[in-house]
Amino acid sequence: MALKLKIKDRFNKELPADPILENSRRQVKEACFSYVTPKTPGNPSLIHTSPEMLDNLGLSEDDSQTTDFLNVVTGAEVLPNTKPYAMCYAGHQFGNWAGQLGDGRAINLTEIEHNNKRWALQLKGAGETPYSRTADGLAVLRSSIREYLCSEAMYHLGVPTTRVLSLSLSGDQVLRDVMYNGNPDYEKGAIVSRVAESFLRFGSYEIFPSRGDVKTLKTLVDYTIKNHYSHLGDPSKDVYVAFFKDVAERSMEMVIHWQRVGFVHGVMNTDNMSILGLTIDYGPYGWLEGYDHGWTPNTTDNTNKRYRYGTQPQLVLWNLYQLANAIYPLVDEAEPLEAILDAYRSEVDFAYLRMMRSKLGLKIEDEKDVHLVEELETILQLSETDMTIFFRNLANLKKTETNEWFSVVGKAFYEPSEIKDALKGKWENWFKNYSERLLVETLDEEDRKAEMNTINPKYVLRNYIAQLAIDDADKGNYELIDELFNLLKKPYDEQPEYEKWFAKRPEWARNKVGCSMLSCSS
Ligand code: AMP
Ligand code: MG
After folding, report:
1. How far is it, in rounded angstroms, from Cα 448 to Cα 360?
2. CB 151, CB 194: distance < 8 Å
3. How far apart are CA 393 and CA 408, in angstroms?
């Protein structure tokens, strides 16, 4: 084995293992994980690697070209002195208790230490585990490309997220019914190697009290504090409360970032909520095109639309309630946990307002800003407006030339004639208020613009752009994956050579599967 990785396994060394080694689907009790060996891929090949993550793990570009690397990141070979495992967790899915879920198609290889940082390395789509339930443990190319590109894009946008190391083809065919409408077909199988400080989720904790197993719950919470929240000190009742407070704060920070960049997760079930406040499990996520609080990319959630853009901060709170219930047996008092939930409820609107102020380039806090933001949201919603283009171009507005507003943000409107006609008065009025508000600010025009441009990205992984990369990749052409990967490393830079990606969704993509409509099929 040529790869020199500093292996530092803790999760599978310090936590209780499932004693059964057979890879059969089952309920796993009093254990945090089950040992499992990745499936041998039929004909693995590497599509792309993240240079930043190679570096973070202490690997070089040359390492990534070796057969050892390919074998490890596709599950063909297990790293020496490691014991891969699937994590056991439960979850609330779409508001309902779903019981045991677990890593049905994720296999943790090992934990690596480099430059005083710890990374858990995991393969997604590497075969079945005791938690695969009725599914096959595999992943297809389209969803793997989406997870691969979006993880790194989110990181570079400054949004807390899990990361990726590589994207590969397994060489196997995988059967999927993309829209769950009775049309299954074979697709290319793929494997993403993902990396995070930890892949623990809210559901990792929920599972134990649901079975009356407070002992394992305590073991896992103590482990989490010791390894990931060590600044809180040795576990005690007070420290459990402080731990919950930190998780609540990190989760709020994460979701406010989502609102800032227009990201909709799509499946905010408690098994998809990281205990470290990272964006995790990129499934049917999407990016706002037309600004719309009611939009969800997830067609599986079409009836109830639980996970809409505008409800995300509230859904984080709902999920935090489930986590509070889960750790309650360790605290034995509802009041301190409720106080943290109450604090989230009252703080999240302020956090949102602060974020919206920053998107508008407002530094001074004025109480009337709430109305300015609300009016903007209403009118943005009435006019089909591209969120990314609108906020990015807004920075070009001159304080004293607000009647020029249409030439500044007009490119963002899908129906410009409507804006000039029916909605003209509303927009004029908003821009009048906005310009008056800008006059109170002290920053000069250029500085405001520069600052807004660090908050409002120019480039995001637009739904149709990801689909273009997927369509090419299906034909064996990976150039667009590489182009987007590089483009999205600098989402706040102008990058004039990539101007074509600063464009509204084309009409062909409006109702195309994979662009605005995504199911959980992956
Ligand atoms: P998700 O909504 O994608 O986060 O997945 C919910 C649960 O279903 C998790 O326990 C996953 O591991 C499991 N799961 C999703 N897809 C598959 C699959 N193809 N094979 C096995 N388990 C899966
Ligand atoms: Mg998941």
Report:
1. 9
2. yes
3. 6
How far is residue 47's CA from residue 246's CA, in Å, rounded to a whole number? 38
Q: Helix H segments across 86-189?
A: 141-157
CA–centroid distance, 128 to ligand 1, in Å, is: 10
Chain centre distance of CA 484: 17
Output the ligand 1 site: residues, CB below 6 A: 101-105, 131-132, 135-138, 267, 271-272, 281, 283, 520
Dist. CA 281–CA 265, nearest whole Å: 9
Residue 75 tokens, joined: 């599950």
DSSP letter string over 188-207? EEEEEEEEES---BHHHHHH
> Which residue's CA is the closest to the ligand 1 atom numbered 13?
104
88: which residues sit within 8 A by CB, 6+ positions away?
18, 28, 31, 32, 33, 34, 100, 102, 103, 131, 204, 207
User: Mean pLDDT, 10 residues at a time, over the chain (522 residues)?
Assistant: 93 98 97 98 98 98 97 98 98 97 98 98 98 97 98 98 98 93 94 98 98 98 98 98 98 98 97 98 95 91 90 98 98 98 98 98 96 97 96 93 90 89 92 94 94 98 96 98 98 98 92 84 88
Please give the backbone phi and psi of residue 179, each rounded to the nearest 5 degrees, phi first.
Answer: -105, 15
- Domain locations in the chain? 11-202, 362-452
Q: Are 157 and 471 in contact (CB under 8 A)?
A: no
CA–CA gap between residue 338 and residue 384 (Å, rounded): 39
Output DSSP code: residue 446: H
The one catalytic residue among 103, 246, 271, 301:
271
Q: Which two tokens stand for residue 506?
A: 């084309």
What Å distances lie between residue 462 and 187, 290, 388, 454, 469, CA to CA? 23, 11, 10, 19, 11
- For the question of residue 213 being annotated catalytic, the response is no
Taking the C-alpha atoms of residue 504 and residue 389, their distance in angstroms, rounded to an integer, is 8
